[in-house]
Amino acid sequence: MTGSSRLALAAGAIAVSCLASALHAAQVHAAAAPAVAVTQAISDQEVSDAYTYLLGRLLVMRQQQLDFQEGLQWNQLVHRKPGAVDWPNPNLDVAYSEAWIAVDEGSCTQISVPKIVDRYYTVQFLNGWGETLANINERSQPEHPYGDFAVCLKGAAVTLPAGVKRIDLPVHTARVLSRVELGADAKQAEQLQRQFSMRTTGTPTLPAVPKALMFELSKLPGVEAFDLAELALQEPDLNPGMQTVQANVRAIAAQVADPAARARIDQQIKTRAYPALGKAAATLGPGTVRNGWVRPAVSGAYGSDYLTRTLVDYGGIWANTQQEVHYYRAAVQDTGEVLDGGQSYSLTIPAEQLPQRFARYFWSITATDAKNFRVLPNAQERYLLNNQSDLKYNADGSLTLYFAPQQPAGANQGNWLPTAAGQPFRLILRYYGAKGVVANGDYFPPALVRI
Q1: Is there a contact between 333 and 339 (Cβ–Cβ < 8 Å)?
Q2: Domain coordinates of the chain in residue numbers?
Q3: Counting runs of H as helices and runs of E as strands, what totals does the chain give?
Q4: Residue 139 contacts by C-beta under 8 Å, 6 or more apart in sequence?
Q5: CA distances (Å), 390 to each of 92, 113, 318, in order?
Q6: Entry pTM
Q7: How far is CA 196 from CA 53, 149, 220, 302, 345, in A?
Q8: Do 320-450 and 75-200 have the same topology in CATH?
Q9: pLDDT tens digits, one per residue of 264-298
């Protein structure tokens, strides 16, 4: 099979595994719908692009609504037990704390960060589009890696105590995620996690949580997405060049009140936007596929690439920048065959490519289902492999990892990550503090082999 044939198969297979459940039923419905005789003022491509752009914002609004329904409140940091977060593709190798903060012209949110040595940590701030605005750690703040920080609205005239490092944000509200590496001593990580704290320096005007369109990830919205377009676009998009697509979003939103136009636009979404998203999922937009693995072109900070931003918000919300972590995703073998939880696979990494060689901090690999992107339940309660796992190396120094519903014959238990029969799955490989060929984008993991 040629390389181009493999890529074509991989593209189709990944698209099916990631978005088929969300798109199939609606596409069938659209295909059966009668044509609507309305003059088409906005092209199919413009509708598709506008929908893709808007969907990224709706996914963040949806998650924000879920967060507040669960009990989050403005400017209050909540410490989660490891693994006890509910969004797609969470990191299971860190202890998370999370919050939504609101700042204004007269009040900042003060965050205290403990001194952490020889353990990865960061405090990440994201806007309402899923874009990373800032990180607090020893890499971004080498002169002040811990202690007290005040996160303020840019330009706010606020007097801060001595010794407090000010960090300006260009928006009034932001999502906050702190991560502390669990490492070899998870209890110590949780102790450090609980030393992060948050309080306001004044009395901020707390905004209302924006109304969100609630939908399952397995069933994306259609034309109803544009009912909340004006509200969604109140969140500033800080990236350049978004004026045209935002104008198209508003133009479509103005039309959907008309029943005939609404039906036409809904059909355009389901027959043009859905397949386009499915196709783009294969490579995470302009990402690269090799050996059945996909490396996104960007993560965490997207510039004008709103397609990748939407795909990441859909399948792995709250991604950080490549300065912090590099991601690889596998949903197929290099032949294009979808990874099946009822089958057994091996991944052999040569000695000169061992993941710890390319991670300044640590690495991990997680298996999730290909529909909702949650970890696969198993009797062993093992959901990831990383540098803390009880790994056994081959005689030549290489490392073979196994992904299977039952422990393969001859496989060391510590090298095996259980999967679930009857569920297509995908793997996420993370390198924290990537270096060498991973950092410069030249590396791809070897292909998975079906046993």
Answers
A1: yes
A2: 75-200, 320-450
A3: 9, 19
A4: 323, 324, 433
A5: 16, 31, 29
A6: 0.89
A7: 35, 11, 36, 28, 40
A8: no
A9: 999 999 999 999 999 999 899 999 999 999 999 99
Q: Give the mean model confidence (pLDDT) for residues 155-170.
A: 95
- Biggest CA–CA distance in the chain, Å, is 69
Q: How far is CA 177 from CA 8, 122, 130, 185, in A?
A: 37, 8, 12, 21
**DSSP summary character for residue 334:** T
Place of tokens 């299977």: 404
Rounded distance between C-alpha atoms, residue 301 and residue 322, angstroms: 9
Q: Are 31 and 355 in contact (CB under 8 A)?
A: no
Measured distance CA(400)–CA(362) in Å, rounded: 18
CA–CA distance from 255 to each of 220, 234, 349 (Å)? 20, 19, 54
CATH architecture, range 75-200: Sandwich (2.60)
Give the CB-side neighbour count of residue 228, counting CA atoms within 13 A: 19
CATH number of 320-450: 2.60.120.600
The predicted-structure confidence for 35-49, as pLDDT tens digits, reads as follows 333 345 789 999 999
- As a whole number of angstroms, the distance between CA 347 and CA 418 comes to 14
Structure token pair of residue 83: 């693994």
The closest of 217, 244, 249 to 233, measured between CA atoms, is 249
Query: What type of residue is 73?
Result: Q
Structure tokens at 382: 């093992």
